[in-house]
DNA sequence: ATCCTGATTCGACACCCGTCTACCTTCATT
DNA sequence: AATGAAGGTAGACGGGTGTCGAATCAGGAT
């Protein structure tokens, strides 16, 4: 099937990114693959102290409250943000470690050639 | 609506990532937000000379040929890979500059706080 | 206790996306 | 020119996703 001698001679690359790992990483990238969620991430990170409450985030979009809440949940379940309640408001902040991990994947760290 | 004095006092953040820019970047991230496409990117980058022909890529997945072709088109239209025909085969290679640009977005480069 | 507000959850709808089979295009070889 | 293979295109099907309105939950204030 793979005519190894004619197509790319002498190359038999290892998986290097197995299906499970690729699925987990792709899920995180899919969370960022939405304009609203991408803007949410940057709005949160740009706020004072690196945290923002939902009311400020909702005010920045022409979207209904439940929609923002849905996007925040997607980001939360992807491990990209954390949200904790302090009194009446819920404050969200980004997880720089998670974003850095995704960044490394894009830079092909650990890829031979 | 945005009770600025009670929620996060003294913060009026600029857009910092307008809707158009966010849409363009999100489209690129969405292209990476699929396990098959993420593995395709790494497979291409890991091949000798940083390029791989479609026959090798197709052989690495349990997917039909047209499906791989579809994913390659998504990656190509997102500006993440380039493909040029040399004789019978079409060789794909990644665009490191595009991936680096996405990487910078995740690292929140240019975000104040 | 009651009410009000911030935020999430629940259903529902329209739309997009990944996958396939069948067919077409392009190139090399005979 | 004709055949065969590599790769792409077209159309269709099933499941996933963004969006909303209405209902619900959680805290603070009256």
Describe the structure.
By secondary structure, chain A is α+β, with helices and mostly antiparallel strands. The first copy, chain A, has one domain (19-106): Arc Repressor Mutant, subunit A (Orthogonal Bundle), CATH 1.10.10.10. Chain A has 5 helices and 3 strands. Chain A has helices spanning 19-32, 35-46, 54-59, 65-77, 96-106, and strands spanning 51-53, 81-86, 89-94. In chain A, strands 1-3-2 form a 3-stranded antiparallel sheet. In chain A, strand 2 (81-86) and strand 3 (89-94) form a beta hairpin. In chain A, helix 2 (35-46) crosses helix 4 (65-77). Chain A starts with 18 loop residues before the first helix and ends in a 7-residue tail after the last helix. Chains A and B meet through helix 1, helix 2, helix 3 and helix 5 of A and helix 1, helix 2, strand 1, helix 3 and helix 5 of B. The structure holds a DNA duplex (30 and 30 nucleotides). Chains A, B: GO terms for molecular function: DNA binding; DNA-binding transcription factor activity. Chains A, B: This is HTH arsR-type domain-containing protein. Chains A, B: Residues 17-113 form the HTH arsR-type domain.
| Top CATH class of chain A | Mainly Alpha
- Examine the coordinates and then state which fold CATH places here, giving the name of the CATH topology of chain A: Arc Repressor Mutant, subunit A
The profile of the biggest β sheet of chain A is: 3 strands, antiparallel
CATH architecture assignment name of chain A: Orthogonal Bundle
Strand order of the largest sheet of chain A: 1-3-2
Helix/strand order of chain A, N-terminal first: HHEHHEEH
Task: Look at the structure and name the CATH superfamily of chain A.
Answer: Winged helix-like DNA-binding domain superfamily/Winged helix DNA-binding domain
Give the proportion of residues in helices of chain A: 40-55%
Distance between the termini of chain A: 25 Å
The amount of beta strand of chain A, in percent, is: 5-15%
Q: Count the helices of chain A. How many?
A: 5
The whole-number mean of residue pLDDT values of chain A reads 90
Keywords (chains A, B): DNA-binding, Transcription, Transcription regulation
GO molecular function, one term (chains A, B): DNA-binding transcription factor activity
Domain HTH arsR-type (chains A, B): 17-113
Protein name (chains A, B): HTH arsR-type domain-containing protein
């Amino acid at each position: 099937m793979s005519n190894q001698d004619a197509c790319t001679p002498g190359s038999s690359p290892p998986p290097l990114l197995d299906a499970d790992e690729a699925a987990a990483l792709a899920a995180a990238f899919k969370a960022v693959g939405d304009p609203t969620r991408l803007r949410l991430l940057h709005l949160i990170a740009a706020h004072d102290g690196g945290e923002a409450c939902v009311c400020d985030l909702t005010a920045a979009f022409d979207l209904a409250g439940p929609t923002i809440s849905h996007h925040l949940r997607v980001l939360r379940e992807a491990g990209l943000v954390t949200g904790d309640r302090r009194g009446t408001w819920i404050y969200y902040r980004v997880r720089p470690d998670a974003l850095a991990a995704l960044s490394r994947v894009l830079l092909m760290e650990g890829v031979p050639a």
